[in-house]
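Section 5.1 Outputs to date
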Amino acid sequence: MNKKSSRSSTRGKSSPAPTLANPILTENEKLEQAQALIYQAWEATTDRQAATLARQALELSPDCADAYTVLANVEARSAEDACLLYQQGVDAGRRHLGEGFFDRQMGHFWGLIETRPYMRARQGLADCLWALRRKDDSIAHGEALLELNPEDHQGIRYGLLSRYLAVGDEAGATRLFQQYAHDSSTAFLWSRVLLDLRRGEQVAAKQALHAAMQGNPHVADLFSGQRKPPARLPTQFSPGDRQEAAIYFAGFAEAWLASSDAMEWLMDQLTE
């Protein structure tokens, strides 16, 4: 997914710079100006420029959650460092929104522009925690994000599905398939095969494999070893193309490899 395209939708008018007639900015105005700096950071051509703008944003407002997310992306030297920054972003977003806001707006968070910095920081935290093998914590954050925004404009369900399958939580995976029954993405088509196999339903798995091959046959080439995954993951893809297959393989290989029987069955099917 092109991150800039999703971010650009959050742009708004920034408050005016302080003048002699208006020398003091309110906290909300400071945050608006800080967010304007973040829009510039997203367009920066170097990590150093992005980090400088993010730090300037934090000088204006320590509640600028997106500033911590930028720093986690461009300055963190380790997953531990990134997690600390994402957590600071989550805390900043929660401070700005206020505790009561979460109860009032539960279920349609993303529709409110002011929630998006918090949502981005929490998504980054969930991903980072998974990289640190703090699996339960990562899954809990993913579940919370879907409660806040069940329409899932961020695509949280894909990472969460992978993690459910990797830890053997078939009930969690089933809930996602039920909640997003309309989803015909490569991630859902191919993961349906794995879930059916985990349940011992080989007939259903074979039908699901037929649908998955129609949706994106390039995944099979990666699992069979006929094609190597790219050295760097693509940032954009079209449904059914090789780029989407590479993204699926990178995100879900761990889940498949956790079930040797499923992998053996898949290899048998692909060589028939």
